[in-house]
Amino acid sequence: GRMWLAPLCRQPPNxxxxxxxxxxxxxxARFWNYSRxxxxxxxxxxxxxxxxxxxxxxxxxxxxxxxxxxxxSSPSRGGGRxxxxxxxxxxxxxxxxxxERACVYLPSMEELVTFFDESGQVSQAARR
Length: 128
Known about the structure:
With 128 residues, this protein is mainly beta.
């Protein structure tokens, strides 16, 4: 696993590119959101394979609370404040689904709504 900390950059957006030298199967991607300051970090993520959008979703803010995980995580291994991160699954293999179940996040409809006001400020419904 690797970790990156990037400055806030709205245009162009921050991205991480992974290049594989040969065809590679990926069953799961795990993300650890920034945890030192809860107001920083990623909310919206997109995953592309060969320029094709295969996943679009959101990550929760890291509150520092310990969430259940099938594997122990530590900050030195990228586990940010003791939780297991957020998993995005690309398989229905039972062993992978069982292993990652506690780390898969399904946002509520309220969290998916974003409001804009006249001054251009943005607020998420879940953060009122």
